[in-house]
């Protein structure tokens, strides 16, 4: 791609397919055979608790201006996986996932919470994201402009198989990924619902775009959190769901162990 191919009016749409940038991730782990399966878990308190109980073992860390971000190892039915918190928001989460790929990661499952756009999605109800509307900026550096980015079919299948086997009721559908949590207006919310979005969050479309660009597998499962409707916002005490958050983490681990 040459400069003439770029759109000077809209820098976000200046997609450049060159896989090598000026700055590239070069993180390595001090493990003889680093696992290729990673769980990206947004529940910091769950990771801290499992680390304290010895169910997770710290094997490294990534760093940002927010400080050290531990990397843990966990075993699932004889399969070794790595686990980390990916940070909040698409730019940081994708940066950490890039570094995980440089450590040898090839298969990723993310688990977290979300806002729900429909009242019939209860607090704590799992949703497997199949695709996400790209209303954020990071994904446009990994894929040409399109309206959506799709999860890896293998990852969606692994999540569905795990949830079915565990007899966990779940929804399957599209998400709205946005950078601006305080700009979820009534009109934008209505448009997202009309195009099939069930939930809203901040990272999925960027995760999926990165995965396609780097040729790795990525899926995401979230649980229903706060309610976002034209009538107003309802917190629904969604963060205080420790049992749901821990259970969703282990479901993500099990699903990720099936990949590859």
From TrEMBL:
Membrane spanning stretches: none
Pfam families cross-referenced by the UniProt entry: PNP_UDP_1
GO CC, any one term: cytosol
Ranges for domain Nucleoside phosphorylase: 39-228
GO biological process, one term: purine nucleoside catabolic process
Known catalytic reactions: uridine + phosphate = alpha-D-ribose 1-phosphate + uracil
EC id: 2.4.2.3
GO molecular function: purine-nucleoside phosphorylase activity; uridine phosphorylase activity
Coiled-coil spans in chain: none
Matches recorded under PANTHER family: FI09636P-RELATED, URIDINE PHOSPHORYLASE
Name of the protein this chain belongs to: Uridine phosphorylase
Native source organism of the sequence: Longilinea arvoryzae
């Amino acid at each position: 791609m040459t400069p003439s191919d770029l759109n000077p009016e809209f820098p976000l749409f200046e997609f450049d397919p060159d896989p090598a940038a000026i700055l590239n991730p070069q993180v390595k782990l001090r493990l003889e055979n680093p696992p290729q399966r990673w769980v990206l878990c947004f529940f910091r308190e769950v990771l801290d608790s499992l680390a304290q109980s010895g169910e997770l073992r710290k094997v490294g860390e990534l760093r940002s201006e927010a400080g050290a971000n531990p990397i843990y190892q966990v075993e699932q039915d004889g399969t070794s996986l790595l686990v980390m918190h990916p940070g909040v928001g698409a730019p940081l989460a994708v940066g950490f996932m890039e570094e995980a790929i440089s450590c040898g990661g090839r298969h990723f499952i993310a688990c977290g919470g979300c806002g729900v756009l429909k009242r019939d999605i209860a607090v704590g109800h799992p949703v497997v994201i199949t695709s996400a509307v790209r209303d954020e900026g990071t994904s446009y550096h990994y894929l040409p402009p399109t309206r959506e980015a799709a999860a890896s079919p293998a990852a969606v299948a692994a999540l569905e198989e795990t949830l079915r086997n565990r007899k966990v009721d779940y929804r399957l559908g599209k998400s709205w990924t946005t950078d601006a949590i305080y700009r979820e207006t009534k009109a934008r919310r209505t448009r997202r619902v009309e195009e099939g979005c069930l939930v809203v969050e901040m990272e999925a479309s960027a995760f999926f775009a990165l995965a396609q660009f780097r040729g790795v597998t990525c899926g995401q499962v979230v649980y229903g959190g706060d309610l976002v409707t034209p009538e107003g916002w309802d917190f629904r005490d969604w963060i205080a769901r420790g049992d749901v958050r821990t259970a969703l983490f282990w479901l993500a681990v099990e699903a990720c162990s099936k990949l590859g």
